[in-house]
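Standup notes, protein team

Yesterday: finished cleaning the Cyclopterus lumpus set.
Today: Phospholipid-transporting ATPase structure.
Blockers: none.

Input for Phospholipid-transporting ATPase:
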Amino acid sequence: MSIVWLHGLSIDHMYIKHPWGLKEEYSVEDEPSNLDEMPLMMSEDGFENDESDYQTLPRARVNQRRRGLGWFLLGGWKVLCGSCCDCLAHVCRRKKELKARTVWLGCPEKCEEKYPKNAIKNQKYNIFTFVPGVLYQQFKFFLNLYFLVVACSQFVPSLKIGYLYTYWAPLGFVLVVTMVREAVDEVRRYRRDKEMNSQLYSKLTVRGKTQVKSSDIQVGDLIIVDKVILVSCRYLFACSCFIRTDQLDGETDWKLKVAVICTQRLPAVGDLFSISAYVYAQRPQLDIHSFEGNFTREDTDPQVIESLSIENTLWASTVVASGTVIGVVIYTGKETRSVLNTSNAKNKVGLLDLELNRLTKALFLAQVVLSIVMVAVQGFVGPWFRNLFRFVVLFSYIIPISLRVNLDMGKSAYGWMIMKDENIPGTVVRTSTIPEELGRLVYLLTDKTGTLTQNEMVFKRLHLGTVSYGTDTMDEIQNHIVQSYAQVTSQPSNGSASGSTPSRKTQTPGPKVRKSVSSRIHEAVKAIALCHNVTPVYESHAIVNGETESAEADQDFSDDNRTYQASSPDEVELVRWTQSVGLTLVNRDLTSLQLRTPSGQMLSFHILQIFPFTSESKRMGIIVREESTGDIAFYMKGADVAMASIVQYNDWLEEECGNMAREGLRTLVVAKKSLSEEQYQDFENRYNQAKLSIHDRGLKVTAVVESLEREMELLCLTGVEDQLQADVRPTLELLRNAGIKIWMLTGDKLETATCIAKSSHLVSRTQDIHIFKPISSRGEAHLELNAFRRKHDCALVISGDSLEVCLRYYEHEFVELACQCPAVVCCRCSPTQKAQIVTLLKQHTANRTCAIGDGGNDVSMIQAADCGIGIEGKEGKQASLAADFSITQFKHIGRLLMVHGRNSYKRSAALGQFVMHRGMIISTMQAVFSSVFYFASVPLYQGFLMVGYATMYTMFPVFSLVLDQDVKPEMALLYPELYKDLTKGRSLSFKTFLIWVLVSVYQGGILMYSALVLFEAEFVHVVAISFTALILTELLMVALTIRTWHWLMVVAEFFSLGCYLASLAFLNEYFDLSFITTWPFLWKVSAITLVSCLPLYIIKYLKRKFSPPSYSKLSS
């Protein structure tokens, strides 16, 4: 729910969250029609903006209209069917149009429309759709659907071949395991939803406070939000407080929110019901950085109308850190910003599964062709349709039903290995169906705050022009500050007399003299302690009857009980640093602030004006009056690019900013300008006039402020380091060497994101950075893309607003250019934009993407990626719970991809192809057998032989391939370049598949023909010889495939061989025991096995000797 804050009290800490999983589309108004004829041309020479550009698009539209029968037959029917289905789905799932609303205080019954219920529902199924939904997810793939059709065919007597359990047992096993897994997940989701919906809140009514469930909160209710309470709506409120928005935009810093002024004048909270007031709010939308509305009170003459902005609102999924919120609910349920920016969770399918699905289709086609050939050779005599289907069932082992079972069990084994890896403790595999995706990634999209950085600032450097202080010389600054204020306090008390006539001092400034180092340090530290938006917060201890007493009596104002809060962590660290050197910020409100000197003296300052930081100005300023002297000073700090033209001439600023940037420090230039009383009064008059302007208010205000920003005195340059997560730099270098392109998507400011990209070495020192200029129209986007096109091998930095414009008009061109960059940084991104970027990369590149983050604002991105990784961090576990894989530190992603991703993909590819080989070899033997015996549709092996062949005789050695590895973990991490080969998909391709087909045809033909040639009087000897040779061949082929032996592999080989030999004594139905114990049987089986396997061993030896793979060269 979303809240408008109306009244507030002081509390400790409160948590607001909304874990919905819905998504709402929105449309953006198009640019003027005169730009519609301006396509962006892609060519070798760059973008050309000439007359030919304007003639291309209309001609393309004419060509599109020429659609005839050829277009329909070549795929147009798919487009038409898809359009019809989309229209039908839109009609069936028509959503209510989102509109602006009028919300009366405490009167939900006055609402003109019915708004969505404030209930959470993250379940994918209900009691009626569970079974059909799970079955659909399983049988929408050709592999499982094929198994189902073959198994159902065995209920027809004329088509029955073998026993029913040989077909239904593996299929039933897969379905049962899948349903149990989905049922467990559904029960967990239901319990979490029920817990959230049952959370109790205090609702303010005419009769007093009442308890209400979260799901029963309505638009218009007055809600009192106490500490540590989860809330799922949006409020408009009435008192100043601090909030955290880490679950919404990824920023963990506290942001100041102000209340509706009108309601603050009410004597008591209960008087909210005695006034007639309403809130007019804009329609729900995705933008989390803006809000427009009005607060109107009707029972006064004249009416009181107060404009509302984002500063007056409290979004869902935010954290209130101080103050009790009493607000009116304006948005609930799926109309809140957090829900609109959250996408539905989708069932992810690995690329390997899709490749195997295509191969099974090819095998099925070969199976049908082989069956038709068999029937054709018979001459299509008799009931040839029945014979055709019997041959299809007879050759159904070409696509073994155990393929799905082995792959699923293998994936579970990979997940278990990942979670048991001691080198990446705390890793959790939440989606066990896609571990091999970790070995196929091309793009890694990462969050910044909490993922690459700890969001903990450390003051590193203070430069005064002629002298620089680092972390090891901060004690010198402290000594200078102590001495400076000690001299002030030791002066005679006549200093206070001068304070009674402040104007005299400002009217007669003395001549300019070179200041000492001590005085320069004093001025710099004082400026840093004053120029900021930081507020000290003291925790309240004594609360009586649920109401907070007087702050003076209840709060502890000691240093230990004080914390600093601001919208920027840089400012907090700067104020903490001034405290460490002796100048402490102890109190601040909207109009004043107080500093404490090392000697304990209190310095009071009156805040006259404050100019907040914006992305356009890249600086912030404050005008203060010192109460003891009456001096007026204008302090300003900002980025060097913005401050260089404002400060007086100097010869060191640009050089030192470059030096600090190369060290990965975030720099701020601090300047000062002393103002006389007359100068300030003139400025204030002009400033107030500009703020009252109706037209071009922003430009006029900016012009007035810039009139002060001239020839300011440069005081110092500060350098602050944002602490990176452990081993971020080597991990990013490892990923780059592995061929993975890294994009950083963050909701933070452009300057901060650029600095972190440099300090983390996401952008190397030798690479240029192209900062995409802010754009708002198609023409601007066209020109900026032209400029970007001419750059080569440079990283791209772009804001969310500019990105939206580019994607609206030049989606394909922008993605094509961005994909050529070594690194991309997208700042000021909303959660929806993050997911949109992931989707664009998937659509335009067809490569596998991975998203990693740690906050609730990263959930959409994680769910949209092919592989989502969540980090359990300071921003909670929301991203971790929604991800496919959960890790505890960013550095663990290196081993997760290089080692476990590689092994999972290589092992799954080998396992899948070997299982198919196991089916193809026996199908080849069946084809040879049928062709020799007059093309009869009679099975070669029946009953337990087929069950044993797919299970105990060969299953354990084949499944032991999940323990195989081609490269040791240390080697994979030392040479990340090996990862590049995995992205090409060479371990499982049509080439490797055809090789296995040829091997299967060769071995199956040799085994069957040799057994037919060597068998003696009785036919049962053919079965004994061929089946024994088949088992031995499969065991030897497993040994041939293995690259690194494990003791369990040896045990599996001998265990399977022992099971087969032991079962011979009980298989009198299939084997002649008197024959299989003779020497002729042994030498015939040995000879056939040798002929089928020896050539393959020789080929493998020669290939490794003359054309070894890259990893074998490294190993040697």
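Follow-up from PR in the comments: Residues 8-66, 492-511, 542-553 have pLDDT under 50 and may be disordered.
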